[in-house]
Amino acid sequence: MKETVKKKPGKGNKGKASSTPPPGGKRKTAIRVKTLADLRRFMARTLNELDADKIVDGKARVLGYLCSVLMGIIKDGDLESRILKLEQEASKNEHN
């Protein structure tokens, strides 16, 4: 069964662009989440949309889970690049 977007009575969109596509519609731009700051902003927007009943709780739950997975990937990538930089610096110091 397809979930529908809930709306509060008397609260229209009033010409404002929504960051979530209409049901069955496609988002005009891709979501770009490359850093933990991007992820924090995305999750804050998702929380606000859930609170305003612009998205259903099932979608918010899925997005929250995927964001937690992405957070781990971003952290691991950051740690990996920091370790690589330290190893390169240590290698340089050994040759001097």
Structure description:
Helix 1 (36-51) packs antiparallel against helix 2. Mean pLDDT is 82; it is low at 9-17. By secondary structure, the chain is mainly alpha-helical. The chain has helices at 36-51, 57-95. It contains two helices and no strands. The longest helix is centred in the last third of the chain and has 39 residues, at 57-95. It has a domain at 36-95. The protein starts with 35 loop residues before the first helix and ends with a helix. Residues 1-30 are annotated as: Disordered.
Give the distance, in angstroms, between the N- and C-terminal Cα atoms. 67 Å
Give the strand content. under 5%
Helical coverage, percent range: 55-70%
Weakly predicted, low-confidence segments: 9-17
Task: Give the helices and strands as they follow along the chain.
Answer: HH
Question: Rg, please?
Answer: 20 Å
The number of helical runs is: 2
CA-based shape: elongated
Give the biggest sheet: none
Residue-averaged pLDDT: 82
Q: Structural class of the secondary elements?
A: mainly alpha
How many strands in all?
Answer: 0
Task: Provide the fold topology.
Elements (H helix, E strand, L loop, with lengths): L35 H16 L5 H39 L1
Helix pairs in contact: 1-2
Keywords:
mainly alpha; 96 residues
Brief synopsis:
This protein has 96 residues and is mainly alpha-helical. 57% of the residues lie in helices and 0% in strands.
